[in-house]
Design goal:
mainly alpha, 6 helices, 78% helix, 0% strand
Length: 144
């Protein structure tokens, strides 16, 4: 019985390591860390960014495996949710920028100006959709 659990745990750890390596390789390939450092003028701290990405991914995996209550309650939950949202937004924008999705969209829609409004409307739509999903149960989510 011990060896079965040990091997299952070892297999799960190996699968998680491979998946995490793929995610971090994806983040590196689209240049998210470099873009964040360039946009904020902190390119001299790029190794700090990389360490934070790895530690954040590791911490997120541990929290998903061993859930525990947050010591900060609702306030910490709100800060973490905002942080996750910023990260996902940066990841999506970096991927879209890498794929040149917005220039193609603007060319197809014949937009010569208003790119900021387009990005803002996409962000607001995502926020409203998330609120509808989590707070009002539209789409199968929300309180039971």
């Amino acid at each position: 019985m011990f060896w079965e659990k040990f091997l299952l745990g070892l297999g799960g750890l190996a699968a998680g390591a491979v998946t995490a390596a793929g995610v971090f390789a994806f983040i590196t390939a689209i240049g998210l860390v470099q873009r964040l450092a360039a946009k904020t003028g902190t390119a001299h701290r790029i190794s700090w960014y990389e360490d934070c990405f790895v530690l954040g991914g590791t911490w997120g995996n541990l929290i998903s495996l061993y859930p525990s209550p947050l010591p900060g309650g609702t306030a910490l939950c709100a800060v973490l949710g905002l942080s996750y949202g910023v990260f996902v937004g940066c990841l999506i924008m970096s991927l879209a920028e890498t794929l040149d999705a917005f220039p193609v969209l603007c060319r197809r829609l014949r937009l010569s100006r208003g790119m900021g409004l387009l990005v803002l409307s996409l962000a607001l739509g995502k926020c409203l959709g998330s609120a509808a999903y989590f707070f009002w149960g539209i789409g199968g989510g929300g309180p039971a």
